[in-house]
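Trying the structure run again after the queue cleared.
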Amino acid sequence: MNRKLVGAWALFDFANSVYPAVIQTAVFSLYYTSVVVGGEGGRDELWWSRAVSLSALIVAVTAPCWAPSPTGAARASGSCWRIRRSA
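Done. Tokens:
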């Protein structure tokens, strides 16, 4: 393995990890507190928490169907979305 190539990749990976972390912790927090939930009475926070809860619920329900499986059998057979009925 080329040591220069590995070093370049490590620096690139470090830069790509730091930039999103700074944006999420510094810039997004200022935007969130001033624009998203800047209203009074807590109503904006209520809608924000509902949106986050709904998105988490969607991920929790659909994650088993999108998760990689060793055989891929669940996705191939369509058993994730099939409703099982008892006779």
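The chain has two domains: 1-36, 42-71. Worth checking whether this holds up in the mutant runs.
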